[in-house]
Amino acid sequence: MGGVTSSMAAKFAFFPPNPPSYKVITDDATGLQLLDPFPHRENVDVLKLPTRRGTEIVAVYVRHPMASSTLLYSHGNAADIGQMYELFVELSIHLRLNIMGYDYSGYGQSSGKPSEANTYADIEAAYKCLEETYGAKQEDIILYGQSVGSGPTVDLAARLPRLRAVVLHSPILSGLRVMYPVKRTYWFDIYKNIDKIPLVKCPVLVIHGTADEVVDCSHGKQLWELCQEKYEPLWLKGGNHCDLELYPEYIRHLKKFISTVEKSPSRRFSSRKSTDRIEHSRRSTDCYEAPRKSTDRREKPRKSIDRPPDKLKTNEYKFNNIDKLEKYRISFDQVERSRRSVEYHEKSRRSIDQQLEKARKSVDWLDRIRAA
User: Fold this and answer.
1) Which of 74, 147, 150, 170 is catalytic?
2) Which portions of the chain have biased composition (kind: Basic and acidic residues) (predicted)?
C-alpha cells in the first residue's frame, strides 16, 4: 500500500514538458554549448552536469557584473529551463544576481527519470558546480524553490548551515498533503518540507498566491510559521499557482529581501525580529557564564542566529546584545565629551577673567601715575 501511494504521489508530482522546449547544440566555431532556439548571450553558460545517481542534467548560468550573491533556482512542475530561460535573464538584471537554473532528471534534455531521490542528486550537482566552477561560497548562495522545486530546495537548505537565504515560491508541505489533507507525515510521503523547514537556519522568504488552485496558500503559511528565521512573507491577493511573477509586488518584495540579506551579518542579525523572543528567553545568568573551552566551539558550533558575546575591557561582564554595549559606549563617550567640553570652557572663562583682572590693574596703575 505504501509503495503504491508513493508511486501515485510521484506521478502527481512530476510533469516534464513533452516535447522539451529546447535543444542543446554545440557551436562549431567556438565549441560552446548553446540552448537552441535562444540567441547566444556572452554572460550565459550552458552546462551538462553529472549527478551522483548516474544521470546528466542540463543547467544554465547567468552572470551579472555587479552580483554579490548567486541564486540557485529549482523550477516548478510542467516546466523546463527553456521555458524559464527569459525569466532567469530578467531576474538576474533586476535583482543584480548571478543565477543558475537546472532541469531535473527526465526534464528538458536531462537524462534519466524524475524522482524524489533524483531531484536531491540534481540540486547537489548544481550546487557543487557553483562552488567548484564558479567559486561561489555557501554564505553567498540563495536557494530558490518553486512549487515542487521547494522539495529539493528545503532538503539542501536543511543541510547547509551557512546559506545566505532561501526563497520558497508557492511551496508544498509535502507531496501527499497536496492531494489529501492529512495531519501527520507518513513514511511513504515525498518532499516532507513540513518536517525539514525547522532545520533551515538562514532567512526564509515565502511567496504564495491567495487564489492558488494547485497548492493551497495554507501550505505556504504553515511553512512560514515553522521557519527559524522568518522574513516578511508575500501573500499575493488573487495570485494563482503560475502567475506570481506578473505582479509588481513580486519583484519589489524580492529586491527588498535580497537587499536585506546582502547586508553584513552583524547588521542583519542585529535588526532581525526573530531574535527578540530568543533574547527574551535567555536568563540573566547567561551574562556570567564561564568561558567555553576552545574545543567546545568545534564540538558544538553556534547556530547562525547566535552572536558571539562581547567583553568589556575590565573582563568582568559579558553582554549577549552588542547593540546594548554599543549604546553604553556611545552614551559614555557623549558624557565624556560633554565633561571635557565643560572643563575646557571653564578653563577658558577663568583665563579670560584673569586677563581682564590684569588689564584692570594696569589701568589703575596708570591712573595713579597720572594723578601723581
Assistant:
1) 147
2) 273-313
- For the domain spanning 2-270, the CATH number is 3.40.50.1820
Question: How far is the CA of 248 from the CAs of 49, 87, 99, 234, 251, in angstroms?
Answer: 34, 14, 21, 12, 6
Annotated catalytic residue, options 115, 212, 219, 253: 212
Per DSSP bridges, beta strands 310-311 and 318-319 are antiparallel
The answer to whether the CB of 201 falls within 8 A of the CB of 155 is no
Phi/psi at 24 (5° precision): -100, 120
- Cite the beta strand spans of the chain per DSSP E: 23-26, 33-36, 44-50, 56-62, 70-74, 98-102, 141-146, 165-169, 203-209, 229-230, 234-236, 310-311, 318-319
Q: To which H or E segment does residue 347 belong?
A: helix 322-371
Contact by Cβ (8 Å): 197, 226: yes
Q: What is the pLDDT, as a whole number, of residue 6?
A: 52
Single out the catalytic residue among 64, 208, 241, 253: 241
Is 212 marked active-site?
yes
Q: Would you tell me how many other CB atoms lie within 10 Å of the CB of residue 259? A: 11
C-beta of residue 275 within 8 angstroms of C-beta of residue 328: no
Q: Mean pLDDT per 10-residue run, the chain (372 residues)?
A: 53 84 93 94 96 98 96 96 97 97 98 96 98 97 97 98 97 93 90 97 97 96 97 96 95 96 62 40 36 40 38 37 43 48 50 53 49 48
Domain ranges of the chain: 2-270, 308-372
What are residue 211's phi and psi, to 5 degrees? -110, 25
pTM: 0.71
Q: Which three cell numbers stand for residue 158?
A: 536543511
CA distance 248 to 68: 24
For 209, residues 6+ apart whose C-beta sits below 8 A from its C-beta are 170, 217, 235, 236, 238, 239, 240, 241, 243, 244
- Residue 130 contacts residue 108 (beta carbons within 8 Å): no
Amino acid at site 1: M
Task: Respond yes or no: is residue 243 known to be catalytic.
Answer: no
Instruction: Check if 241 is active-site.
Output: yes
Contact criterion met (CB below 8 Å) for 272 and 229: yes
